[in-house]
């Protein structure tokens, strides 16, 4: 019991360091839009946990910078802090920009991890400010270094080889259940950060669909698969090759053009629910699939072609 209390006390100290650092960052990056939090409820949850008002941590602190690091183009720096940051776990720091290829974004992420491992010597104290400052000061060099590695691999080809096709992919993911608020937030945030479209249905069973460039859908799968699941699997993977620059063709292949969102398919459940033991309304779900030209997935998910209880619309 003493050991458990000591662990909890240590975690509260780490979380307090996260909140103190965030307040400091707000004071430094105070121009409109420079620093944003998508859900201030995460701060309320951490504060309540530290004060002892709740024993449950239902979310992580995450926020994003939007900084003019490129000419006429703002760059996002996405921050997600695990509960044991800074002392025991590293933050997840990802750079996003519409003009930076996804492969290069991944190399930038790897370079940030290497910087933390090699240059951040005092990890008992919060260090997001140090890392973000380093990114700002060295962004041009970071871009050049990560781009050069990509170019060196494609050197033997002619300089016109930028027209290689890309692969559009749609993943249908099935899980025994999804009730954790933290998992639900991770799914939504990861899909939106990767600019994927689709939906997530929490409850029992849980169904997730993501669509976009294959590099991004596979990154999504790599991110959510290690989370604790009773059972999770890809039920169907749909792919189609699209010519480079074929944005219109890519858009036409999407069945969920409005973006990525959580869909409940349950009349008496809202987004603040814990989604525990909530039955799916099969009728609502079948109508949703038909509306989005996805009726064919019924057999893959449930083993039948048509929903008997779904009235024709």
UniProtKB/TrEMBL annotation:
InterPro entries: Phi-like, Prp3_C, RWD_dom, RWDD2A-B_C, UBQ-conjugating_enzyme/RWD. Gene3D superfamilies: Ubiquitin Conjugating Enzyme. PROSITE patterns: RWD (PS50908). Transmembrane segments: none annotated. This is RWD domain-containing protein. Residues 20-142 form the RWD domain. Pfam families: Prp3_C (PF06544), RWD (PF05773).
């Amino acid at each position: 019991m003493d050991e458990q209390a000591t662990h909890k006390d240590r975690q509260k100290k780490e979380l307090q360091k996260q909140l103190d650092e965030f307040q400091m960052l707000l004071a430094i990056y105070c121009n409109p839009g420079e620093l944003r939090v998508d859900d201030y409820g995460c701060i309320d949850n951490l504060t309540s946990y530290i004060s002892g008002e709740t024993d449950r941590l239902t979310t992580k602190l995450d926020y994003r910078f939007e900084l003019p690091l490129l000419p006429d183009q703002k760059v996002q720096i996405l921050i997600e802090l695990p509960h044991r940051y800074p002392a025991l776990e590293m933050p997840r720091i990802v750079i996003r920009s519409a003009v930076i290829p996804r492969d290069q974004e991944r190399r930038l992420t790897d370079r940030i991890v290497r910087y933390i491992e090699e240059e951040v010597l005092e990890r008992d104290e919060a260090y997001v400010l140090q890392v973000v400052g380093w990114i700002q000061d060295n962004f041009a060099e970071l871009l050049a270094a990560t781009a050069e590695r990509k170019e060196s691999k494609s050197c033997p080809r002619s300089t016109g080889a930028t027209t290689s096709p890309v692969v559009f992919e749609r993943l249908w993911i099935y899980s025994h259940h999804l009730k954790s608020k933290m998992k639900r937030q991770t799914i939504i945030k990861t899909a939106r950060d990767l600019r994927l479209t689709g939906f997530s249905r929490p409850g029992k069973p849980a169904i997730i669909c993501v669509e976009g460039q294959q590099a991004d859908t596979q990154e999504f799968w790599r991110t959510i698969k290690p989370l604790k699941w009773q059972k999770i699997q890809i039920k169907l993977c749909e792919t189609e090759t699209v010519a480079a620059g074929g944005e219109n063709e890519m858009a036409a292949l999407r069945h969920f053009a409005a973006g990525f969102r959580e869909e409940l398919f349950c009349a008496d459940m809202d987004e603040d629910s814990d989604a525990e033991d909530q039955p799916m309304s099969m009728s609502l779900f079948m109508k949703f699939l038909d509306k989005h030209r996805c009726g064919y997935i019924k057999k893959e998910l449930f083993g039948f072609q048509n929903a008997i209880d779904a009235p024709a619309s």
